[in-house]
């Protein structure tokens, strides 16, 4: 099939992860991967972000498919069940708001900037080499560290399920994918599942 | 005697509407309906199974049907 410009957005996703190694403030760009899918689903009522533009999905498809780093086995049944997908969505956002709260504390001056990236909501990776000060408030950097942690965590989970199951298994439980599908369902109630 | 043909069917309940199947179908037989489910045109589908292999949720099944 003919390649379109948006079939190369995986390069942007890869670049995003790399840039975070050099300057953590680039992590702010990741907000695009939050707002674009939401805006598309709310305004247009479709999942075109997933269907076309998501570079992360393409990246998994490429590494797992083209480069063969995937067992290409079916995901377990529970992974595609509603309770797991919605449960993971809730958990993911709870952790997201916790991160926002920590950012707020730094903005409020109640806490020092922590120059670490939290992986899998548990492991604190020292990340001070990617911080060279900010022209703005330290809270701006705190959000960047926090947000990069969210992106790195989802990438690592995605890579693990890519290797174990199908290349794009992450798309089965990806919170953005689940949320945009929910919005589409709410907007188009006539389509029966 | 009726002919037996292979066609793809989607388990609508578990489809996540990611669209991975759309990208690989050589017949352009699949459409994501309003971000909710994948819909396969039985007319266009030739039962090649590419979509079933690609689907990350493995919710596409190739069945033999009388056509
Ligand atoms: S489900 Fe997530 S990773 Fe997959 S295409 Fe959609 S937004 Fe991208
Ligand atoms: S690849 Fe599978 S889960 Fe994704 S839209 Fe197609 S049928 Fe649905
Ligand atoms: S079986 Fe082949 S022709 Fe039919 S929908 Fe799937 S990819 Fe398209």
Question: Topology of this protein?
Answer:
The complex is a heterodimer of chains A (193) and B (67).
Chain A: H1 10-22, H2 32-44, H3 48-53, H4 55-66, H5 82-107, E1 116-119, E2 123-126, H6 138-164, H7 170-173, H8 175-187
Antiparallel strand pairs in A: 1-2
Helix pairs in contact in A: 1-4, 2-8, 4-6, 5-6, 5-8
Chain B: E1 4-10, H1 20-24, E2 30-33, E3 37-40, H2 50-54, E4 60-66
Antiparallel strand pairs in B: 1-4, 2-3
The structure holds iron/sulfur cluster (3 copies).
One iron/sulfur cluster binds next to helix 1 of chain B.
Could you characterize what this model shows?
The complex is a heterodimer of chains A (193) and B (67). With 193 residues, chain A is mainly alpha-helical. Chain A has helices at residues 10-22, 32-44, 48-53, 55-66, 82-107, 138-164, 170-173, 175-187; strands spanning 116-119, 123-126. In chain A, strand 1 and strand 2 form a beta hairpin. In chain A, helix 1 (10-22) packs across helix 4 (55-66). The two termini of chain A are 29 Å apart. The model of chain A has no long low-confidence stretch (mean pLDDT 93). In chain B, strand 2 and strand 3 (37-40) form a beta hairpin. Chain B has helices at 20-24, 50-54; strands at residues 4-10, 30-33, 37-40, 60-66. In chain B, the strands form two sheets. Chain B has a two-stranded antiparallel ribbon with strand order 1-4. Classes of the chains: A mainly alpha (193), B alpha+beta (67). The A-B interface holds A 1, 41, 45-48, 50-52, 57, 61, 72, 74-75, 80-81, 85, 165-172, 177-178, 180-181, 183-185, 187-188, 191-193 and B 12-20, 22-23, 32-37, 53-59. The site of one iron/sulfur cluster has 14 residues of chain B, from helix 1. One iron/sulfur cluster binds next to helix 3, helix 4, helix 7 and helix 8 of chain A.
């Amino acid at each position: 099939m003919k390649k379109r410009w948006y079939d190369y957005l995986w390069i942007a996703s890869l670049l995003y992860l790399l840039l975070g190694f050099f300057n953590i403030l680039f992590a702010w760009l990741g907000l695009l991967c939050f707002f674009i899918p939401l805006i598309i689903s709310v305004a247009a009522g479709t999942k075109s972000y997933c269907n076309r533009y998501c570079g992360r999905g393409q990246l998994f498809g490429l590494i797992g498919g083209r480069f063969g780093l995937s067992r290409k086995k079916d995901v377990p049944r529970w992974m595609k069940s509603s309770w797991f997908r919605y449960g993971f969505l809730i958990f993911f956002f709870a952790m997201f708001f916790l991160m926002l709260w920590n950012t707020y504390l730094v903005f409020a001056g109640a806490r020092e900037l922590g120059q670490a990236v939290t992986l899998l909501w548990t492991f604190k990776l020292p990340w001070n080499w990617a911080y060279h000060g900010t022209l703005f408030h330290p809270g701006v950097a705190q959000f960047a560290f926090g947000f990069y942690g969210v992106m790195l965590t989802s990438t690592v989970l995605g890579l693990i399920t890519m290797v174990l199951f199908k290349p794009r298994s992450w798309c089965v439980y990806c919170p953005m994918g689940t949320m945009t599908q929910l919005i589409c369902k709410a907007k188009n109630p006539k389509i029966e599942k | 005697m009726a002919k037996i043909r292979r066609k793809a069917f989607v388990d609508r309940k578990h489809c996540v509407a990611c669209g991975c199947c759309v990208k690989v179908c050589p017949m352009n037989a699949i459409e994501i309906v309003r971000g909710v489910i994948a819909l396969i045109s039985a007319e266009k589908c030739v039962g090649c199974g590419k979509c079933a292999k690609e689907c990350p949720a493995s919710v596409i099944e190739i069945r033999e049907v009388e056509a």
